[in-house]
Design goal:
This protein is α/β, with parallel strands linked by helices. It contains 19 helices and 11 strands. β3, α7 and β4 form a beta-alpha-beta unit. The structure holds iron/sulfur cluster. It comes from Nocardia tengchongensis.
Length: 370
């Protein structure tokens, strides 16, 4: 804890805030890509401490939030089938599909289990050879290596009753999509540090160059975030648009070569739909031909299901940084963490959940006490 406490030091935070204040001569809009960074910003009140010239825009980097409705519905369909053990991380159980969530499937008799690692699911497959075990593989470049390694292990061990429902998404194409949106107000990015621990920083210079936008790789503690913002503002003020690594204690330029090799072996790049955003070309992974036998979508023949998104939820706009969560009319009223209408209110990294957890007291009384 001591190590982390040093990155929350209030005196040093004050120094960084002062430097940001001195540097920012005009208004700038900076997007933190990662939901973990959003939670840190809101939890520590960083956005409120920043000078008025700096606006933080919350990005789409929450793995649970961006998993498309169609994929949730496929998970519900597979989990409802007899003989299936459906395994997932806990957050996914409360994400609303078109008509229900995985908790409902469990309450209706489905064998839905929360696991803490995809390897737990593989062990379940070994222990239950007469059942089909499916793991819901969601998330960004951060979680993908463990899922890739699990499929690699399943193939190596000849395990036939394990499969992966793959919904992996990639950060750089999402940054490109945000910059190409006609409504885009983002002028700089704090790139997600943990994604870069895997992938390194080499994907970002072409984006910084093409969109003339600074990209600063940033960690998750308050001082990490303030330092990322400080470096971003200095670039913006001087008209530069470069990639900087403000998280060198975890991120190397080349990333993690072993993890990248595993990803390259098991996955291949594909177009992916992002919940609330739509299809982004070449923005995700699916299993490569060598591992296609472990693809749950093929094993269970779940084709395109009819989906029905909530007509009230504005999480797509939240995920693109177009509105803040409390600007959604349902926030804190029809939509709360206990009764979420959208994934951004469910996930521990979702922006709506962050505002609900840490900002309710700033809201009008009728919303705060709803
Ligand atoms: S507050 Fe609820 S309904 Fe509104 S955007 Fe967030 S998740 Fe959707």
């Amino acid at each position: 804890m001591k190590y982390l406490d040093e990155f929350s030091n209030p005196q040093l935070a004050g120094v960084l805030l002062e430097r940001i204040r001195e540097s920012a001569t005009r208004r700038w809009a900076i997007m933190e890509v990662c939901g973990g960074q959003t939670h840190s910003i809101i939890r520590h009140g960083i956005d409120q401490l920043l000078p008025e010239t700096i606006e933080m825009i919350h990005g789409p980097g929450c793995p649970v939030c961006v998993t498309p409705l169609g994929m949730i519905d496929k998970a519900l369909d597979i989990a409802s089938q007899p003989g299936v053990i459906f395994c997932s991380f806990g957050d996914m159980l409360r994400v609303p599909g078109s008509s229900k969530d995985l908790f409902r499937v469990k309450s209706e008799g489905g064998d839905v289990r929360v696991v803490y690692s995809p390897l737990d699911a593989l062990e379940l497959a070994q222990a239950n050879p007469d059942r089909q075990v499916v793991f819901f593989g969601i998330g960004f470049e951060t979680t993908a290596p463990a899922n890739a390694m699990t499929v690699y292990q399943a193939k190596r061990l000849g395990i036939k009753n394990f499969s992966l429902l793959v919904s992996h998404v990639l950060v750089p194409p999402a940054i490109a999509a945000i910059m190409e949106s006609p409504d885009c107000r983002v002028q700089a990015f704090l790139a997600a540090g943990h994604v870069c621990t895997v992938m390194g920083t080499r994907e970002y210079p072409p984006l910084a160059e093409k969109y003339e936008v600074p990209v600063v790789v940033t960690g998750f503690e308050p001082l990490d975030i303030l330092e990322g913002i400080r470096r971003t503002v200095i670039q913006l003020e001087s008209g530069r648009h470069e990639v900087e690594n403000a998280y060198p204690r975890a991120v190397a330029e080349a990333g993690n070569p072993v993890a990248k090799q595993m990803l390259e072996d098991v996955f291949e790049v594909t177009d992916r739909a992002w919940r609330g955003i739509g299809v982004i070309p070449r923005s995700g992974w699916r299993l490569s031909d060598r591992y296609r036998e472990f693809d749950a979508e093929q094993r269970f023949a779940v084709g395109d299901l009819q989906t029905a998104e909530s007509s009230i939820c504005r999480s797509g706009e939240v995920l693109q940084g177009l509105i803040k969560p409390h600007e959604c009319a349902a926030f804190g009223k029809q939509c709360t963490p206990r009764n979420p209408l959208g994934a951004t209110m469910v996930s521990s990294e979702g922006a709506c959940a962050a505002y609900y957890l840490y900002r309710r007291l700033d809201l009008p009384a009728e919303v705060a006490h709803a």
